[in-house]
Write the structure tokens for this entry.
Amino acid sequence: MDFGQIEAFVQVSAHSSFSRAAETLQLTQPSITARIQALERELGEELFERGGRGVRMTDAGLSFLPYAERILQMIQEARDSVEEVRNVQLGSLRLGAAITFSTYVLPEILHGFKQQYGGVDVVIRTGRSEQVLNLLLTDEVQVAIIRSLSQPDVEQIELYDDEIVLVAYPEHAFAATRRATIADAAREPIVLFDRGSSYYAIIHNLFRKAAVIPNVAMELDSLEATKRMVEQGLGIALVPLVTVQRELAGGTLVRIDLTDVEPIHRPISLAYRRNRRRSRTVQAFIDTVTAAYARKEPVA
């Protein structure tokens, strides 16, 4: 079993085609076929079913695929490691980030990082924090920025507290004093976002603890759309503070302090695998982020 065979197998599985795998690897189709046949002989099982409608993986192929992908990933990591010995600028970074962070905070961080390490190739995977944590645990990303989640195989460095705040449009009655009780807020039309997110659960839990039922005007799957609805006077919303800094500064939204409930905070952390070698590029990113948050608060 050699690298060429593994590479050919993964490409055929990705494209469901010997010819397209050959194009991707810049080889002839007979070369791809020969590599797959040699791998099948060594494993003692057929990995693909060939038919007039294309190529389909067998059960043996499906079972072998995650190991083959991991082998290629380890080879790439080994190459990156050797390359970084020559120059950290030539490394690569596979970064995972929670959706809110990747949209509203990560661009500024990457701007600073790329000013120092402009030659580093950066690949970003986004999702909810639980999804990104799984990407980290399966080594699909090398470092992640997520809300703090307990996981024994992961080291976490807390960066900042993600505060959830109530916002309204400037002409709303709350805007005169910029204060309200939770009961007052519950009576107003409220715009909620992303039912499957932890934010949704936190907001509902806030009203439940206060023993009030929110007047839900609409539910959206987009935070940006939620902000636009509030700006148009269609309701108020509880949103992460980091997501509305531009609107608050520009006066299109107003922050309303809830006077009778504790502020809602969620810690955001930089996470990486425990007891796992970190490449120079990954360490450079960790150092850049931690230094940035040591100097300033990301949210005013």
Remarks:
- The longest strand covers residues 154-168.
- The chain is about 45% helix and 25% strand.
